[in-house]
Design goal:
Structural class: alpha/beta
CATH class of the largest domain: Alpha Beta
Strand content: 15-25%
Helix content: 25-40%
Number of helices: 16
Bound molecules: adenosine-5'-diphosphate, magnesium ion
Number of strands: 21
CATH topology of the largest domain: Rossmann fold
Number of domains: 2
Length: 520
């Protein structure tokens, strides 16, 4: 029977506390979820969202606090006991076995075993009923990420949940998959199932949620009616300060000068894990931001490696800087030619965590000046220079430090990224290549990083932006292309392409962009 939304409480959690060692991840959190309500949990990275829902699903045990389901206090000691209480969860990182089939994966997760034949018909029934199309006999390794998520949802639905928890379900989906998911969630909610939905995407929350609880540094700081709020208000509450809008120049003219070019670049993958880059063609002009969209794991890491010089190409003509072949040049040589790459991985790749900021600056400067006769005096000079330089970088880029010249690992994710960007841009590159520059960074830092990319293109530098965040790609790029399975789509002007087109390319639904209406 359908109940009126919000009329009855399903989950009531009171004063939930959870620490890891000295670190307190959840502090006195209260949250109420009504029957049939979609309740979003919003917060920056590290705010404590996953910790809280893992407590509800019995993966973590709270230090203190009480949980009531249907007005009755319960103790959720394990996922099994969560499921007995009607709670199902789809994890942020899926938990399926790739070598098993869909049905086998569902079977091993069921608390009550049923006959395989009945299982198959049950999966098919749910799959039809909820439009969660998957083949029960297919191996999980053959499924797209979106399909894997459907399997996880079906697995939850088999238990007939009263509360479905989803931890950042859309970060791995294409726009089409997101809109399908939202349809399902709305239908589930109207059939009386409550949904606890974690995200840090504001627009999604406004679209899907009834209520939104904002976590900050482990505390619940507000619960807001999602239908009566704005993304701006949510962002500012989440971050705790005003967010300034990006300044974009509308009347932008492009230089016709090609900066960097990839020509029929092939890089077979030498391990069993990576992706092979296949016949990649790409061109970025001075004054332009080229956005490369795509779901993680489609060759972004490999592309970044050949762009930076971490791996060199078999044929040096596959990469050209101002028409000059550079495919055989290494990272240091490319940096000297004016190419800076800012990788996704901030620790180890971009910085050494237990060295100071000035030592980390020194490492890049050392390679810049290493052609010297007197190594010792240059070392000393560079060390001194790097101290001065790093102080300037910290100041110019508004990097908040806990102390003077801290260790890299003492900076928060956003501040470390501001430092890494500042350090690269201090070299005044002609071409700057970024991979996921705002991943895991708070909105304030993300805005300042995005503004830096715009400023670079406005001062006639060439910028390549590899990002999974479609909003970011559309906001910043002049031209867009999509990487899927190691191939790159055609490059398209941003105003001639929609998020839906890009989504189809991301999902590998179109072989080339030439199939798109707009390109014809
Ligand atoms: P969110 O999901 O909001 O990004 P989490 O709940 O995953 O945040 O994490 C909150 C904080 O608790 C983070 O600073 C994280 O590093 C820390 N944390 C989470 N799990 C553990 C753990 N098992 N051990 C130690 N620290 C943890
Ligand atoms: Mg999380």
């Amino acid at each position: 029977m359908e109940k009126e939304k919000g009329s009855e409480l399903l989950l009531k959690a009171t004063k939930i506390n959870k620490s890891f060692g000295d670190f307190s991840a959840n502090k006195d959190i209260d949250i109420d979820v009504a029957k049939g309500e979609i309740h979003a949990l919003l917060g920056e990275n590290g705010a404590g969202k996953s910790t809280l829902v893992k407590i509800f699903y019995g993966v973590l045990k709270p230090d203190t606090g009480s949980i009531e389901i249907n007005n009755k206090e319960v103790s959720i000691s394990s996922p099994n006991s969560a499921r007995k209480n009607g709670i199902g969860m789809v994890f942020q990182h899926f938990s399926l076995f790739p070598a098993l089939t869909v049905a086998e994966n569902i079977l091993i997760a069921l608390d009550e075993k049923i006959k395989f034949k009945d299982l198959i018909s049950e999966i098919s029934k749910l799959s039809k009923e909820w439009e969660l199309f998957v083949d029960p006999l297919k191996r999980v390794s053959e499924l797209s990420v979106g399909e894997q998520q459907r399997v996880e949802i079906i697995r939850c639905l088999m238990q007939n949940p009263k509360l479905l928890i989803m931890d950042e379900p859309t970060s791995v989906l294409t726009p089409q998959e997101i809109s399908n998911l939202f349809k399902i969630l709305k239908r589930l909610a109207s059939s009386g199932c409550s949904i606890l939905y974690i995200s840090h995407k504001l627009e999604e929350i406004i679209e899907i949620a009834d209520q939104v609880t904002i976590l900050k540094s482990g505390k619940s700081i507000a619960t807001i009616d999602a239908k009566k709020t704005t993304t701006k208000f949510l962002a500012e509450t989440m971050v705790g300060k005003e967010i300034t809008a990006l300044k974009k120049v509308n009347t932008k003219t492009f230089s016709k000068d090609i900066a960097l070019e990839l020509k029929n670049l092939n890089k077979p993958n030498e391990t069993n894990f990576g992706i092979s880059l296949k016949n990649i063609n790409l061109q970025v002009n001075y004054g332009e931001i080229l956005g490369i969209a795509g779901i993680a794991g489609n060759g972004q890491v490999e592309l970044m490696e050949v762009l930076s010089g971490e791996t060199i190409t078999d044929n040096e003509n596959e990469i050209l800087l101002e028409s000059i072949p550079i495919g055989s040049k290494d990272i240091t040589e490319r940096r000297q030619l004016g190419i800076e790459t800012i990788p996704e991985e901030r620790t180890l790749h971009a910085t050494v965590p237990n060295l100071t900021i000035s030592e980390n600056t020194f490492l890049t400067y050392f390679s810049k000046y290493n052609k010297t006769d007197n190594i010792i005096s240059n070392l000393l000079n560079n060390h001194q220079n790097s101290l001065i330089e790093s102080e300037r970088i910290l100041k110019d880029n508004d990097v908040r430090c806990p102390e003077v010249n801290p260790l890299a690992n003492q900076l928060s994710g956003g501040n470390l990224q501001k430092f890494i960007l500042g350090r690269s841009l201090a070299n005044n590159p002609k071409v700057a290549i970024f991979s996921q520059p705002t991943w895991g960074v708070d909105i304030g830092a993300a805005t300042s990083i995005r503004q830096k990319l715009l400023n670079l293109s406005q001062s006639e530098k060439a910028v390549i932006l590899i990002s999974q965040d479609l909003e970011e790609i559309f906001e910043l790029s002049d031209q867009i292309c999509v990487i899927n399975g190691g191939t790159l789509s055609k490059i398209m002007p941003v105003d001639k392409v929609t998020a839906a087109d890009v989504g189809l390319l991301m999902g590998g639904k179109l072989d080339t962009a030439s199939e798109l209406e707009i390109i014809k």
